[in-house]
Amino acid sequence: MGTRLNLGSITLNVEQKGTDQPVVVFLHGITANRRVWDPVIERLATRFTCVSVDQRGHGLSDKPDGGYSDLDYSNDIRLLSERLSPSEGIFVVGHSLGARNAIVAASRFPLSVRGIVAIDFVPFIEDSVFDLLEKRVLAGNRSFSGLEQLTSYLRGRYVNLPEDAIERRAEFGYERNEAGEYAPLASASAMAETVLGLREDLEPYLSGLEVPAVIVRGELSTLVSPEAFSRARSVNSRVVSVVIPSADHYVPEEAPKEISELVGNFVGNCAPETDRILERN
Amino acid sequence: MGTRLNLGSITLNVEQKGTDQPVVVFLHGITANRRVWDPVIERLATRFTCVSVDQRGHGLSDKPDGGYSDLDYSNDIRLLSERLSPSEGIFVVGHSLGARNAIVAASRFPLSVRGIVAIDFVPFIEDSVFDLLEKRVLAGNRSFSGLEQLTSYLRGRYVNLPEDAIERRAEFGYERNEAGEYAPLASASAMAETVLGLREDLEPYLSGLEVPAVIVRGELSTLVSPEAFSRARSVNSRVVSVVIPSADHYVPEEAPKEISELVGNFVGNCAPETDRILERN
Question: Which of A52, A61, A81, A96 is the catalytic position?
């Protein structure tokens, strides 16, 4: 179930696995929850302190009426760092919304964030892609009379996810409401505000980034076009880029082995020695 | 239910609505069936003879073990023309697979096909997009224990379709099998062969096209990128191009009003006078 962690301005639901330093925080995508990282964390908890977080508005965390901009989400990451690793700072691994938040937090709070892996979200995503994402996110605000209907819906919505990831999304992304229906844990109004906020200009944060960073794209992603990824690479020569073959947008759930290896290498190279740029192509 | 029409080499399930000339044939996308055109044909049957067709391997038509190349599908269109309008030829309106088939047929058999509207399929679709389409098509070969599960799946798979289109896909795209499950009418092996065939080079057919043609893109389509559409426009200056706002790939089901107006104007301008290029931007 995780632990409710009171950060002062907000209480987030988190879970820690592993005890070895450094601390690595995992941030899910919009409408999802911390459990999407289970197969990745399972592989990394023997090496690092892995903390999965339900971001604000999602899962079992607080869902304030407003406050879902890039600044709000990244403020939470700074508070998490102060709580979890006040002297060393944390690594942040984010997917989609979580990647956006990782980039913003690392740029604003370089003493709190030691390094990031940002998966399938970059600056320069096209307006038409955001239009489609917005439709998709809003369409997800739907309840189901039974678990079978819910699971069927998720299989259709995420056609490339393995069955274990589908079941995880069904089990941990919904709750039974008063009518006995399965309703999304993610707050509908929070999702609407969050998806609008994803359009905010991310370029200055990425170009100004000074901590080690890897950006990752799913080869078949329809959110991050090859062009947007290429432009993103060009704004900061220190950022390493990786493409995961055969994966679409949902890279951590589709390719947990590849992502855990990538994160393991990245964090292992950056720590425990003093921070240095990962040398990798 | 439609009518079984024996064309010699194959028997296709078709339905005719309306009696006024000319004849307009409607071709669905891969894994779909002729009923996706219902809302479009409803609007056009007062003006034209509208014929919706389950293409080979789909719906209630024959499903031979092999023979799903662009040549096979376009041969069927020539046979349909000879049967339905042997002296005048037919207009063909196709979506996705149907658009590919319309382009190939119009190029190969310009005396059988008077003009085409090709919706959201062009040459120059990127390999990575075909990879994703292939995954998506193969993932659709799935049965359901009940109608509610099926409908939920379709809502997830086609997030932008209106509810009436979802219900139409559930009702007309599946049949109860011996186990009582809802199984796809589209043949799994035919779909696998068909989706491979979609990668065949379409450029020579479009560039050589001499009959009036409109190509249409959904503004939010992830199958036809803006770049592919732009390149397709450039290979044949006589081809008219139209973008439908707010629609993604499934344009006929998402925007039946816009598509029926477009088809009505196009066919109305081309016929009953002698063929001429539609003047339109």
Answer: A96
Q: Which residues of B touch A219 (CB under 8 A)?
A: 128, 131
Q: Does residue B249 carry a catalytic annotation?
A: yes
Cβ of B159 within 8 Å of Cβ of A153? The answer is: no
Cβ–Cβ under 8 Å, residues B12 and B54? yes
Range of the domain at A52: 3-125+200-270
Classified as helix, coil or strand, B2 is: coil
Q: What is the pLDDT of residue B251?
A: 98
Within a domain: A172: no
Closest of A97, A191, A95, A96 to residue A142, by C-alpha? A191
Size of chain B, expressed as the number of residues it contains? 281
Contact across the interface for B226 and A144, Cβ inside 8 Å: no
Which of A131, A156, A225 is opposite residue B156, by nearest beta carbon?
A156
Question: What token pair was written down for A62?
Answer: 């607080």
Q: Is residue B136 part of a domain?
A: no
Label residue A272 by pLDDT band (50, 70, 90). low
Contacts of B154 in chain A (CB under 8 A): 156
Q: How many Å apart are CA A112 and CA B215, to the nearest integer?
A: 52
d(CA A36, CA A52): 9
What domain count does chain B have?
1
Active site residue B248: no
Question: Looking at the domain assignment, is residue A215 inside a domain?
Answer: yes
C-alpha span between A268 and A223 (Å, rounded): 29
Q: Which of B96, B112, B221, B260 is the catalytic position?
A: B96
Query: Could you give the CA distance from residue A70 to residue A9 in angstroms, rounded to a whole number?
Result: 16
User: What pTM does this model have?
Assistant: 0.89
**pLDDT at residue B277, rounded to an integer:** 41
- The answer to whether B151 touches B170, Cβ cutoff 8 Å, is yes
CATH number of the domain within which B25 lies:
3.40.50.1820
Nearest CA in chain B to A126: B220
Q: Is A131 on the interface with B (CB under 8 A)?
A: yes
Q: What is the average per-residue pLDDT within A57-72?
A: 98
- What is the value of ipTM here, to two decimals? 0.84
Inter-chain residue contact A156 with B158, CB threshold 8 Å: yes
Window A:184-223, CB contacts with B under 8 Å: 219-220, 222
Nearest to A149 among B149, B160, B248 (CB): B149
Write down the pLDDT at residue B275.
Answer: 41
In a domain, A279, yes or no: no
CB B51 within 8 A of CB B118: no
Flag whether pLDDT at A279 surpasses 70: no
In chain B, which residue's Cα lies nearest the Cα of A152? B153
Band (A1; pLDDT cuts 50, 70, 90): confident
Contact with chain B for residue A152, Cβ under 8 A: yes
Mean pLDDT by runs of 10 across the 281 residues of chain B is: 93 97 97 98 97 98 97 98 96 98 98 98 96 95 95 96 97 95 97 98 97 97 95 96 96 98 96 47 40
The identity of residue A149, as a single letter, is: Q
pLDDT > 70: what percent of chain A? 96
- Average pLDDT (A237-244) is 96
